[in-house]
Write a structure and sequence with these properties.
The chain has 249 residues and is of the alpha/beta class. The chain contains eight helices and eleven strands. The strands form two sheets. The chain has a nine-stranded mixed sheet with strand order 5-4-6-7-3-8-9-10-11, sandwiched between helices. The chain has a two-stranded antiparallel ribbon with strand order 1-2. The model has no long low-confidence stretch (mean pLDDT 90).
Length: 249
């Protein structure tokens, strides 16, 4: 409850995480998942869509701008996630945003053209979402949008357009970005992403003795009461697990 009205929630499918955000993401919100390389951003995002289909019967779209769709499918099988199974059922759609850029032919059903502009990119994502009546959307990642569109100087404008469209069509969305230096407060590549998103989740590492431990911090989540503490999480054989009652770093 926030004030006197109840917020409809979308469960993340990530064990332990929803305990930190009053049961799930506010429905229709846009959440930025940020962190350094190797922190688990892609796994977090794909888990959100895959578990949405598997556990909650909610279709989802994954826009992959950093690796080919076939590579993403193969990597996710390490967690026992058969993305192709749900693609056949039209519960998941994967948009290949890599092949055309690097000049590799693609047989994927959803492929972004190599010379697409920002407006066409947004229209295409809108059409794919509508084609399977998606309730969840992942775009991995924001820096790759800027690189792909060759319009880095317009990234703030493009992100504002994107956020407006996502709010209009009502999907609950995760956008990923790089955090260059979280310890110094740099939690996004362009320093604008966190202001546009309605929620911000930071995945990072902390030194504990002679090893690195992963932690999660919810920097912002509108319409939600949440802790500002750092919580441990692991990437297990079945995906990400958050420990809300574990040791707080």
């Amino acid at each position: 409850m926030i004030g006197k009205y109840e917020i409809e929630r979308v469960e993340s499918g990530i064990p332990g995480f929803d305990d930190l955000i009053q049961g799930g993401f506010p429905k229709g919100t846009t959440v930025l998942v940020t962190g350094p390389t190797g922190s688990g951003k892609t796994t977090f995002a794909v888990q959100f869509v895959y578990k949405g289909a598997e556990m909650y019967n909610e279709p989802g779209v994954i826009v992959t701008l950093e690796e080919r769709a076939q590579d993403l499918r193969r990597e996710m099988k390490a967690f026992g996630w058969d993305l192709e199974e749900y693609e056949k059922k039209r519960m998941i759609a994967i948009v290949d945003g890599v092949s055309a850029v690097v000049g590799i032919p693609s047989e994927e059903p959803f492929v972004l053209e190599g010379n697409i502009n920002a407006e066409d990119f947004l229209r295409y994502i809108y059409r794919v979402v509508k084609s399977i009546n998606a309730k969840r959307l992942v775009i991995d990642s924001i820096p790759s949008i800027a690189f792909r569109l060759r319009e880095e100087s317009r990234i703030r404008e493009v992100l504002l357009q994107l956020n407006t469209i996502l709010l209009e069509i009502g999907v609950t969305s995760i956008l990923t970005t790089e955090a260059p230096d979280p310890s110094r407060g740099r939690i996004s590549k362009y320093c604008v992403e966190e202001y546009i998103a309605r929620g911000v989740v930071l995945l990072d590492f902390v030194e504990k003795g002679v090893e690195l431990k992963r932690y999660l911090l919810i920097r912002k989540m509108r319409e939600t009461k949440h802790s500002m503490k750092k919580y441990p999480f692991e990437i297990t054989e079945e995906g990400i697990v958050v420990y809300p009652s574990g040791e707080v770093y």
